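Review session, final week

We close the course with one last complete record, chosen because it touches almost every idea we covered. It is Efflux pump membrane transporter, a protein from Photobacterium sanguinicancri with 1062 residues. Go through it on your own first, then we will talk.
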Amino acid sequence: MVKFFIERPKFAIVLSILMTLMGVLSIINMPVGQYPDVAPPSVNVFTNYRGANAQVVNDTVASVIEKQVNGVEGMQYMRSNSSNDGSYSLDITFEVGFDADRAATLVQNRVNAAMPLLPDEVKRGGVFVEKVSPSMLMILTLQSPNGTHDGLTLSNYASSNVKERLARLGGVSKVELLGEKEYAMRIWVKPERLDALDITPSEVIAAVVDQNAVRAAGTVGAEPVVGNNAWQYTVNVRGRLAGEKEFGDIRLRTDADGTIIHLKDVADIELGANQYMADAYINNADSIGLAVYQDPSANAMEVARLVKETMTEFEQSFPDDMTWATPYDSTLFIDVSLYNVYETLIIAVLLVTLVTYVFLQTWQATLIPAIAIPVSLIGTFAVMDMLGSTINTISLFGLVLAIGVVVDAAIVVIENVERLLHESDKPVKECVIDAMAEVTGPCVASAAVLLAVFGPTLAMPGMTGILYSEFGIAISISVVISTIVALTLTPALCVLLMHRGMKPPAFLQGFNRGFDRLTAGFSSTVSFLIRKLVVSAGIFALMLAGLTFLGKTLPSGFLPDEDQGAFFATVQLPEGASLQRTREEMSLLAAQIQQDPAVDLVMTVPGYDLLNSSTNSSVGMVVVSLKHWDQRKTAELHQDAVLAKVQAAIDALPDGGGFAFSMPAIPALGMVNGFEVVLKDDGGKGPEELNRVLQETLAKASEKPEIAAAFSTFSVTTPNLYLDIDEERASLMGVDFGDIVNTINSHFGGVYINDYTLDSRNYMVMLQARADSRQSADDLSGLYVRSASGEAIRVSNLVEASIVYKPTSLLRYNVSGSAVINGVPAAGVTSGDAIKAMEAVLSELPQGYNFEWTGLTLEQNKAGNATVIAFSLALIFTYLFLVAQYESWLTPVSILLTVPSALIGIFAAVKLTGGDINLYTQIAMILLIGMASRNAILIVEFAKLLREERGYSVFDAAITAAKLRFRALLMTAFSFILGVAPLMIANSAGAQAQKAIGFAAFGGMLTATVIGTLLVPVFFYVFQTLREKFHRQPSETATVASIPSELVTENVTIDTTTDNVK
């Protein structure tokens, strides 16, 4: 088959061109993302119980729905939030890989079963079930640079125009307004005027309902008619009122003297907002935020592109003095980090080509692998596309590391062709045919070893399995394609480009002389180590001891923390603090953050609790958008440094506190980078007792040096005004209990009466007391309610007010009442060590309380076991493959004993760089199992040939094989090492991931080459001797006592790339 391509080189070239073109087309069309689709599917259940507090929602809605949903097929965990505003939200997280549509259907069925048991108010409003992405894709803002438009105007423009348009885009699942204030016709009643005119709020509401209504008046001349009727008319009367003036003219009462009391006599009327629970600011200027969430099945990069294109187009029709900005865009980090990896890939190809030229020393020989590299890498994308993979950092890292591997097969062919051209007088084509007959087997076997290493990773379950398999697929495909290229294109190009008489340039003669001296020193060292097995055993023992020590002391992690170009903060004032106080504190904070030279935009949303996705007057959200990475090259401009300064600024707030935090490496698994654990009240002892245990736990956690901060938004100390209504007295006075509650609500909370139409859109008409009349409980004295006899009764005579403390929201996790604890590791401490420290604290929980890790932390804990399994399977599969290849149980041991030489380099690199054993270093470990084994095979296979077919002694075979394979080994090693060098000096988006895998791969290959190459001949000598001791070989009768003198001369003809001695 190989001869076919040698005879028809143009066919081989066309085949490679087709593979390359298919790869290019796949690159254009393949989805792009930071990671493969590893986020677990999530389904959200949402409803609202208007007028209910958190406890009522928890008891009547949460407990009912969650009892039915609990244990639904594929569920990992579920968590819910019941808030004082009556809202209820339940998020059910499923196993990674579970079908999202099926998950939504299963949850919908369970919710349907719970519907008959829910309160009527909830059933009327509806319970909504949808599959969602739990993290924000991006946040957009609208602002008015010159202050022409206030927050209310911006909010309504966003609501009625921008939000609706974005929600229609493919891949967008939800658009949420941050700081939303929708238009409403506000009726601000004056209690003192109502008192003076003897009018109650209920009477005002009744008048508005009566006079702001759409009524049908029928039709004149409609069938049936009497006699002839030529015309038919629809009767029209005045419907809804058209503005503040018409609302002001609503008649409340006509006195006996003909005096008409209008609404404007007892209230101020304006076009205001339907609620004033949160604001939004960008750099302390009025704004409105739009949080865009993607559909779980959509590609983030594509959705973000559509959103930005739509906004750019929409901007042309914006009103004057209105612009938009993007304070948070999760895809910007992905885009820049992928660009950096592409750049690294190109640099790595150039460096590997340079190394190839230095060793092969002719441009013709160098050009062939230089062509083979892009064909192999680009062709890989075509197969990845067929398998449903995406272009992401994991797969691209696989290709970067594969560069040194894919070039090796081509080099094996070229070296063998060069040797035969020098040894024989045959035509070039015949030499190439002979060379391919010798190397085809080793090339295929070499590729099979790497496939054996990565094969087990392709079947691993869960998130870690997906990440491992994505890397394994990229490496495996590139190795297979590079082998195909080596057996098709490379021999064809050898026929076209190579000829006798190719001489290296003069400037490389010095390199050759130095390399000869290095080879001689290497041979002497190997000879010494074989003769002094005690020394070799000591070196190996020291290496194992170092591995053991480093393995126990190196910290563990999951994914490295990155400078993502933006981070968040939550500001917490004392419980019950007014929105005005929160707004003032956050304004001070934003002004200070803006002064940092690394900061681009600061978005603040007073009144919005990011971690609970709910409104709270004493909490605020901050989004800090940093300048581009190219403008932040120094350490003081790095995200970590800016975040620390923001945290210091928060701590220095005169009336508040809070926490600044970066997003986790996988945003779909939470909001806070660090660890996340749920404290569960399995004993059902109630929120107050749970809070006590929570505070004790947080206090203990703060004493741990591994934990910089541990915090929770759970609180039961929010002050509430409790009104104890004397129902018996009210009944005696003829006052209905419901009228009392409605009157109080209309005064303090606001009552939705009916609707008002503006620009073809309906908005609320709301009644509430004027701001200066609802500042304290004393304002109850100005409220009146009408008795059955028509008498106005002062409300304060029927109620007694007191301050109580209640939670603003109640959380449940897997049915139990709970509180979420987020933690940030101390500087220089990995997430794994912080988790261990927190686990020690949680082990002391009192009876009736338990804990569960959740989000990214849960996946990190799962990954620990998966790594051990992956590593073990890689070793087992490699061993079994080698047993099958060599028909020996002992020979493969001499190959696998070189694996520790790679691991010690990885561990040492991690230790010296202050890193941790994370996903990227683990991937490097699995790859280096294959690379170390591959290098050892080059020596062992040739040594076996010398021993079994040429009759060399075990000692001589080991030394000769090591010496003659030395150049090929170093070329592969230098190609690999320089291929990963660009990763080690990364200094932009995604730099930490690049450094983690770069340093690990560099260190592992360096020690595998320096130490492993020295020890492989020793291991071969030991295990071949043992093998022959127990299984006598026929070749023993032909054993040669020493190396023939001709083998150490320059004229020796030994193929260093195959199993043949000439």
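Two points worth writing down before the exam:
The radius of gyration is 37 Å.
The chain is about 50% helix and 20% strand.
Good luck, everyone.
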